[in-house]
Amino acid sequence: xxxxxxAWSFYIGYLRLVLPRLKxxxxxxxxxxxxxxxxxxSRLIILIPLNANISHKLxxxxxxxxxxxxxxxxxxxxxGVQGRVYKHSVYRVLDELGQAHECVLxxxxxxxxxxxxxxxxxxxFGEPERRQQVxxxxxxxxxxxxxxxxCRNRYKLILLNDxxxxxxxxxxxxxxxxxxxxx
Amino acid sequence: xxxxxxAWSFYIGYLRLVLPRLKxxxxxxxxxxxxxxxxxxSRLIILIPLNANISHKLxxxxxxxxxxxxxxxxxxxxxGVQGRVYKHSVYRVLDELGQAHECVLxxxxxxxxxxxxxxxxxxxFGEPERRQQVxxxxxxxxxxxxxxxxCRNRYKLILLNDxxxxxxxxxxxxxxxxxxxxx
Lengths: 183, 183
Ligand SMILES: Nc1nc(=O)c2ncn([C@@H]3O[C@@H]4COP(=O)(O)O[C@H]5[C@@H](O)[C@H](n6cnc7c(N)ncnc76)O[C@@H]5COP(=O)(O)O[C@@H]3[C@@H]4O)c2[nH]1
Description:
The structure is a homodimer.
Chain A: H1 2-32, E1 44-49, E2 65-70, E3 74-78, E4 81-86, E5 89-94, E6 100-107, H2 110-119, H3 127-146, E7 155-160, H4 170-181
Helix pairs in contact in A: 1-3, 2-3
The structure holds cGAMP (1SY).
């Protein structure tokens, strides 16, 4: 089950490394930037769209989402790559009143692998199975993170149902709804 | 099968992005560094130890391997992370005569995931299966790369059998043996 391994890879190779450092990175960022309404609780917001259709620039998905700046780089020696760089992007998300909320936002990158694999016949699964794999990825990841002491309160997984994609502000609304929940 | 998905992920999310740019990165590096004996053919050498036991600093594995410098950073927008950094480390590997050979070297990062998963009871497989998974990873990756036009002649996979680990220069010798093969 591909999604099971990708969820573990996402945790072991990334979340377990970066989430414990997130609070300090955000503190350093706020010291050098004007952050008006930081999504309280300093979490990494991880977007998981059911259709695995991921864009590389969130600001192009919804005009109420603006790229602000990147958090400071984290350099970690990994598997022979000296000083491999881990960083996150900070976005400003506007609500219905036009007020900006800062948050650390990204898609779950392994979904790109699920999407591409479903397009390659030799990879072993097709589009019908892909949705199931995304759900399995989400549940496995949720389970792993709930049992992880290092990652507690440092993340928020948002499963995005693509039925509402007709609304041009579907994504910003989903993010803000989830930001409120954690306060 | 975890290894199958990890091999596809390694190709889709990494090798397919970085290998086509490798030649240019190396050319840029040579313009600013003294490279005496570059492993001809500008390939990324990917180490795959059967026991999945990966160190983060190659120079600590074998005293004939010295870290030289990093290739220039590649910045690519990925899944909401603006300017995600992809880079590789260049090492100098000394042969029996003390001559230095430059090469771009790293372990296959997904093996870290295989190793950690085999240590976590909730992940689904243990140490006995791990060796099988590493072999499956190697064969799947080999197969994918052989059919990839973008990656032709840009990589070299080295499967490392850990039986010779008693030799303190086992790793440098394996690398040099493989460097010669490609010339
Ligand atoms: N050597 C090396 N250098 C890299 O820059 C790199 N980037 C990815 N990979 C490996 O390729 C494969 C595909 O990557 P993907 O991004 O889809 O998944 C990644 C991604 O979802 C997340 N992740 C890792 N590093 C970052 C990062 N810097 N920013 C965001 N996400 C990251 O965690 C997963 C597992 O990472 P690794 O376990 O390091 O190995 C990956 C993986 O096996 C790399 N390998």
